[in-house]
Amino acid sequence: APGLYLVATPIGHARDITLRALDVLGSADLLAAEDTRTLQKLMQIHGVGREGRALIAYHDHSGGAAAARIAEEIRAGRSVAYASEAGSPLISDPGYRLVAELARQGLPVTVIPGACAAVAALSVAGLATDRFLFLGFPPAKAAARLSWLAAEAHGGATQVIYESPRRVEDLLVALAETHGEDRPVALCRELTKSYETVLRGSVAELLEQVRETPPRGECVLVVAGAAPEGAGAEDMETALVNALERLSM
Ligand code: SAM
Fold first, then answer.
1. Based on the number of CB atoms within 10 Å of its own CB, is 231 exposed (0-12), middle (13-18) or buried (19 or more)?
2. What is the C-alpha separation between 145 and 17, in angstroms, rounded?
3. How far away, in angstroms, is 86 Cα from ligand 1 center?
């Protein structure tokens, strides 16, 4: 059927792709990718041929012309598969402008869900998952990063942060300041790849570990949410009983 198909691709392990994603990559009339070479390589691994179909690059910033072409193809009744370099398109990756524009024009957009580093990290981190906040990449500059983190220090939801391995130590130093060095965290590295590791502990403990062995490869930091003010279920119960007593007086 005509429309844009947002295809999730693996975040490391080439086999982490869905059968439906391979079907769509094999049958779409036009292929679009953040990185055309990565997509081509992935299709080769899975024996999905191009068969003369065009493969175009799409980025949000240089995307005006590509977006217009994609919209035109869809209006002409064709299907377009779009993949970002890794994982789920639009998640700290290009595609948002394209989807917003197609939606504005009333053209069909379909998601072919699959791997996403944020969700994979949450699954394995061992921290609460009932509420979480995806923060993406922190600002690179120290002062900006500190205020960006400080804004989230009291939030109760688990926080998910993407960071380059060279900056993980600085990120933990900043977190010690904003969230406190006892806050539980998990550093999820190279998920689904051969050197996958998950370090779990307090900010202070992880800081010690990354100072000893600087992390390499792709990293997601998962940070526990702040404990509720006054903590303890008992405190909460007492507070509730007191409040009810005041009400009935
Ligand atoms: N769209 C991707 C997704 O669905 O997760 C994210 C793209 S973003 C440009 C790349 C960042 O995702 C990396 O810097 C890292 O923080 C995280 N990431 C991607 N693959 C990863 C992996 N295998 N293990 C750990 N983190 C990963």
1. exposed
2. 34
3. 7
User: ipTM of the predicted structure?
Assistant: 0.99
Provide the percentage of residues in the chain whose pLDDT is more than 90: 88
pLDDT confidence band for 230 (50 / 70 / 90)? low
Amino acid at 48: V
Average pLDDT over residues 144-151: 97
Q: Which residues have C-beta atoms less than 6 Å from ligand 1?
A: 11-12, 84, 86-88, 91-93, 116-118, 162-164, 188-193, 218-220
Beta bridge pairs of residue 189: 197, 219
Q: Are the C-beta atoms of residues 74 and 80 closer than 8 Å to each other?
A: yes
pLDDT of amino acid 244: 76
User: Average pLDDT in the 48-74 region?
Assistant: 91
Whether the model clears a pTM of 0.80, i.e. scores above it, the answer is: yes
Report how far ligand 1's centroid is from the alpha carbon of 117 (Å). Answer: 5
Which atom of ligand 1 lies closest to the CA of 196?
24
209-212 contacts at long range (C-beta below 8 A, 24 or more positions apart)? 210/168, 210/169, 210/172, 211/169
DSSP readout, 216-237?
A: -S-EEEEEPPPPPTT-SHHHHH
